[in-house]
Amino acid sequence: MLGMLYILLLIAGACGFGMHLYAQWRFARIMRERYADKWRIIACPDQGRASRMRTWARLQQVLRSNVPELFEDAELTRWHRIWRYAPWLAWPCWIGVLVIQATTAH
User: Fold this and answer.
1) Do 57 and 43 form a contact (C-beta atoms < 8 A)?
2) What are the protein's UniProt keywords (predicted)?
3) 68 in Cβ contact with 62 (< 8 Å)
4) Angle at Cα 85 formed by Cα 93 and Cα 30, nearest 5°?
């Protein structure tokens, strides 16, 4: 029974983190397709050269803010919410996995 709970928590945690990453990718794709002019603000820095790391960091700033809600785009808002709340599902599952490991280890 405990083994089944362990596997279920492990899978749920992995799915939560996977959805977090997938939601970020979908959000960026929608921004590039529907709001290309706004995407350029994220992708093209004011100073220096553009890089994937800088674009990712700037995207994180946008996702952590309330800016996505200002677009009034239901799909964009949905992926933003999934990005925001998926870790809230994943972390408790993985902490549960660690507790099961700690209590059953000899």
Assistant:
1) no
2) Membrane, Transmembrane, Transmembrane helix
3) yes
4) 130
Compute the distance between CA of residue 85 and CA of residue 104 in angstroms, rounded to an integer: 30
| Contact residues for 55 (Cβ-Cβ < 8 A; gap 6+) | 42, 43
Give the count of alpha carbons within 13 A of 55, CB side only: 15
Q: Indicate the pLDDT class of residue 106, thresholds 50, 70 and 90.
A: low
Please give the Cα distance from 47 to 64 (Å, whole number).
Answer: 22
Contact 68, 84 (CB under 8 A): no
pTM: 0.86
Q: How many CA atoms lie within 13 A of 20 on its CB side?
A: 16
